[in-house]
Design goal:
Layout lengths: L5 H6 L6 H4 L3 E2 H8 L3 H9 L6 E3 L2 E4 L1 H15 L4 H9 L8 H7 L1
Antiparallel strand pairs: 1-3, 2-3
Length: about 110
């Protein structure tokens, strides 16, 4: 099995192996699965809360995006603002340096 980077996969979905194709979800499927509107997902993207891959104008959501959306919805449910949710999610730098977390601790 050939490993494909997310960028390569998003560039041409026809080249994605069948098992890898399941990792990407289109905006309509994502909205339906989590009970939100397409506009809500686009709004979260505009605010920097979600960052889907693109295949032309098609948004492709990964497992990471699904996990982030779950956190957003949970945070909203318990009363956090979107700003609070974003600050909490930004504490964990995906590069592994966690510089924001370290600055906050100091």
């Amino acid at each position: 099995m050939k490993l494909v980077s997310p960028g390569e996969a998003a560039a041409n979905t026809n080249d994605i192996p069948a098992e890898a194709d399941e990792e990407f979800v289109r905006i309509g499927e994502m909205a339906k699965k989590y009970g939100v509107t397409l506009r809500t997902l686009r709004f979260y993207e505009d605010k920097g809360l979600l960052n889907p891959h693109r295949d032309g104008s098609t948004r492709l959501y990964t497992r990471r995006d699904k996990a982030r959306l779950k956190l957003i919805l949970l945070g909203r449910k318990v009363g956090f603002s979107l700003r609070d949710v974003k600050q909490m999610m930004d504490l964990y730098d995906p590069t592994g340096t966690n510089t924001k977390q370290l600055r906050l601790a100091l």
